TrEMBL record:
InterPro entries: SDR_fam. Belongs to the short-chain dehydrogenases/reductases (SDR) family. This is SDR family oxidoreductase. Keywords: Oxidoreductase. The keyword Oxidoreductase applies. It comes from the Bacteria.
Length: 264
């Protein structure tokens, strides 16, 4: 049961630190009860005590490793069966260091499981429950490298391009159901993901690094404005609109009976 005057329950993955922890704080301040998911039970419990005291909301913690199928299934079932959940923040993710040619196959499997498989399965479970309820919001955290993959390594960039594409397709599928979808494309954000991935971020210019709090505040503002895609660093929304328009210009010519003349 939700708190009196609750906005419903927000399920936030990767909630023990960084972007996920900030989302938990901001959503609690907006009146959401919370279901916080991450691997670090101690951190989750500590955050829960702070958030209950500061905002008077209900906070439940659920330890889960979303690279493990059994744990993903546990969260899926909660999304499908808990009618109080009205918001999913699909935030948990991991980076990768080095080129695809030099990558550790097991590291690649973990990245794909967390950044792609878990995100997809949780979004699917949330969509099914939210459509049934006629309301709900799915927020998927992607990255600007989805638009500029040459600037980062292949696996991470491709995983975030998947998240963007998934969000766009899912939004079209959910049209008219009352369910909202948002893809958030942060640039470089000051979180622990760099250290955990073994990436040396010391060479990144400071003017390119956004604090997690500012990133989340911008993302929530974009959600409030009804954006499907939110790019917190982008000053001119017209640039994104032009990007989308250029894609749509190609649409009528992407599938024809005959190959284009330039290939003959």
């Amino acid at each position: 049961m939700n708190s009196p005057k609750s906005q419903g329950t927000a399920l936030v993955t990767g909630a023990s630190s960084g972007i996920g922890a900030v989302y938990a704080q901001r959503l609690a301040a907006r009146g959401f009860d919370l279901l916080l998911v991450a691997r670090d039970q101690e951190r989750l419990e500590s955050a829960a005590v702070r958030l209950r005291g500061a905002h008077g909301v209900q906070v439940e913690v659920l330890k889960a490793d979303l690279t493990q199928q059994a744990d993903v299934q546990k969260i899926e079932q909660r999304l499908r069966n808990d009618a109080g959940i009205s918001l999913l923040v699909n935030n948990a993710g991991v980076g990768a260091n080095g080129s695809l040619a030099d990558a550790d196959p097991e590291q690649l499997e973990r990245l794909i499981q967390l950044n792609i498989t878990a995100v997809t399965r949780l979004a699917s479970a949330a969509a099914a429950a939210f459509v049934k309820a006629g309301r709900g919001t799915i927020v998927n955290i992607a990255s600007v490298v989805a638009l500029f993959p040459e600037r980062f390594n292949a696996t991470y960039s491709a995983s975030k391009a998947y998240v963007l594409s998934l969000s766009q397709s899912l939004n079209a599928e959910l049209d008219g159901t009352g369910v909202k979808v948002q893809a958030v494309l942060p640039g470089v954000t000051r979180t622990e993901i760099w250290e955990r991935s073994g990436i040396d971020a010391s060479g990144i210019p400071d003017e390119m690094i956004m604090e997690a709090g500012e990133m989340v505040d911008a993302s929530l503002a974009g959600l409030d404005q009804g954006e499907l895609v939110t790019i917190p660093s982008l000053p001119d929304a017209g640039e994104w609109q032009a990007f989308v328009a250029a894609r749509l210009v190609m649409a009528p010519n992407l599938s024809h009976r005959s190959a284009a003349g330039r290939y003959k």
